[in-house]
Amino acid sequence: MPIVIILSPELEALLRNKAARQDRDVSLVASELLTSVLEWEVQESEAAIKGIQQGLDDFEARQFRSFHEFAQEQRRKYNLLADS
What we know:
Number of domains: 1
Number of strands: 0
Strand content: under 5%
Radius of gyration: 22 Å
Distance between the termini: 60 Å
Order of helices and strands: HHH
Helix content: over 70%
Shape: elongated
Oligomer: single chain
Structural class: mainly alpha
Number of helices: 3
């Protein structure tokens, strides 16, 4: 069963322009874009779950540092000023 998606005029224009630049059918371009986004979303969710689990495992193994140590590292890493 086909799915009908209503796009804003601006988004439709972007999609049609992309398809025209690639000299491809707009439906195929839309399908590929949706596939890419959905695959990315799954990968990001899996990575987030893995990261959370690693954090829980580290905590249980008492392999962690204080918030103060974390904050100092982030300030150095991103060249941020210390809180007053």
